[in-house]
Amino acid sequence: MFNFLKGVVGGSGTGLKDLPYNIGDPYPSAWGSWVHYRGTSKDDGSQVSIFALSGNNAQDGHLAAGRNGVKRLRTVRHPNILSFLHSTEVETHDGSTSKVTIYIVTEPVMPLSDKIKELGLKATQRDEYFALGLHQITKAVSFLNNDCKLVHGNVCLASVVVTPTLDWKLHAFDVLSEFDGSNGSASGPMLPFEWLVGTQYKPMEMVKSDWVAIRKSPPWAIDSWGLGCLIYELFSGSKLGKTEELRNTVGIPKSLLPDYQRLLSSMPSRRLNTSKLLENGEYFQNKLVDTVHFMDILNLKDSVEKDTFFRKLPNVAEQLPREIVLKKLLPLLASSLEFGSAVAPALTALLKMGSWLSTEDFKVKVLPTIVKLFASNDRAIRVSLLQHVDQFGESMSEKIVDEQVYPHVATGFADTSAFLRELTLKSMLVLAPKLSQRTLSGSLLKYLSKLQVDEEPAIRTNTTILLGNIATYLNEGTRKRVLINAFTVRALRDTFPPARGAGIVALCATSTTYDDTEIATKILPNVVVLTIDQDSEVRSKAFQAVEQFLQILKQNYEKTNAGETIVTGGVSAIPETAGLIGWAMSSLTIKGKPLDQPALASSSSAPSLAAAASNAPSTAAEAPSVRASHHTRSNSDFTDQPAPSSTDGWEDTENGISEGHDSDNDGWDLDPIDEPKPSPALSNIQAAQKRPVSQPSRPAATSSRPKISTAKAAAKSEDDDLWGSLAAPQPATTSRPLNLKKKVQSDDDDPWAAIAAPPPSTRAKPLTSGRGRAAKPAVPKLGAQRINRTSSGM
Question: Where is the composition biased (Low complexity) (predicted)?
Answer without folding.
Answer: 611-625
